[in-house]
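Budget justification aside, the reviewers requested a transparent look at the raw inputs and outputs of the sequence design task funded under Objective 1. We therefore reproduce one unedited record. The lines immediately below are the structure tokens for a 145-residue chain.
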């Protein structure tokens, strides 16, 4: 069943203005997001959020963590991500990530610090690639053997 709706010129004008205003507000919001991404270190915040999302829940989503790590493309991004990691109580991004990866007894999660033979038991290729990528920005990012 079709209905015919009659609109006055003022009704139509009001609807068009509302759509234009909503579109302007949306474009402004998206512009602010774009500015955040383009600002120095903006990608680092998104990287941390992606890493954190990958580590939350019942298990670790290694691919999400990987995407987050590889979102870090420069020192500003690295420093922004590291600042968020330090707020969680860890000294390096690798230490933060390793607490959630499956290392058995080779990592002391209560101290958030590497212990003897860390990394040798599982030889996790994810952590190896994370270390290689993050070392571009800081030599303190390493797997301690």
């Amino acid at each position: 069943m079709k209905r015919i709706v009659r609109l006055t010129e003022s009704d139509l004008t009001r609807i068009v203005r509302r759509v234009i205003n909503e579109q302007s507000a949306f474009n402004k919001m998206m512009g602010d997001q774009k500015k955040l991404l383009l600002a120095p270190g903006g990608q680092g915040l998104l990287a941390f959020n992606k890493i954190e999302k990958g580590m939350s829940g019942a298990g670790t989503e290694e691919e999400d963590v990987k995407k987050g790590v590889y979102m870090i493309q420069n020192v500003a991004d690295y420093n922004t991500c590291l600042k968020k990691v330090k707020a969680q109580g860890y000294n390096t991004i690798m230490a933060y990530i390793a607490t959630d990866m499956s290392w058995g007894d080779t990592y002391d999660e209560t101290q958030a610090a590497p212990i003897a033979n860390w990394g040798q038991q599982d030889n996790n290729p994810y952590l190896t690639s994370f270390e290689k990528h993050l070392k571009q920005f800081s030599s303190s990012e390493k797997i301690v053997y």
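The beta strands are 107-108, 113-114. The first helix runs from residue 9 to 38. Computational costs for records of this kind are itemized in the attached budget.
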